[in-house]
């Protein structure tokens, strides 16, 4: 088979396939055939004019396939076909050499343009393909340029598939600078998604909120968001371990940031109050919910719940001590003010 590659070039191989799926299957067939050649440990390579040592056959095919797919995406207008092409492009990117990916920033722009497609599946595959680009460090900053547009899709889209793909991409991206105003407007929508009955979306929202809660500029806005007390219903033993673990981590991060006084938490809306009031206010039921999941079958969840309960109790104890000391200081100051008057009168 090695002898065939001298004349059977990658260009000729690709000319056999016309569709995105066929190209990808062709690549997999040839790559698997080479890797499974019997009684041979030699890595077959194609000599390349710009690389004296040659390039692995799998990498050459993958690059050619990706180039063909991107060109097909450029000219294809049908939503269903674009979706299939994007899915194949994402596969190629994941298989691509991490050190020397062949895609360019223009290719990212081409994929990002599909975010405006009317076909929902095309949007989902475009988001997934951008997430594949993020796995290659040289493309991360270019994808991050679209962070505002991607974040805006959280609030604009009502399709759960699109919302999930958006959240997964946001969790894969570092938060860019100077984005806080847009994040402040998006946080209430994130908390709304958290109360949807969708495990995958809830998990991604929790992970994103943990990241945002660690940003000092955003923490007060997150704590002052209006939520319903039913948000605590997420803390129950019927929830999967991953969801509870992320929820407890979020509570720990939020509680760690509650060292400064917050503005009035009550909202004029009925049955609503601030997240701070629901979680850490005087009438909060958080402690009861934590005691319930303290007997969760997963040991990691038990430990997290125990640590949070201890932190909450220590916070209350420290507040009581501070109040007592303040009261004692006030009493001592009043006594010191009275004593000179008594002495002078006597």
UniProtKB/TrEMBL annotation:
Residues 107-255 form the Armadillo repeat-containing domain. InterPro entries: ARM-like, ARM-rpt_dom, ARM-type_fold, Armc12. GO terms for cellular component: nucleus. PANTHER family: ARMADILLO REPEAT-CONTAINING PROTEIN 12. This is Armadillo repeat containing 12. It comes from the Eukaryota. The lineage of its organism: Eukaryota, Metazoa, Chordata, Craniata, Vertebrata. It comes from Cairina moschata.
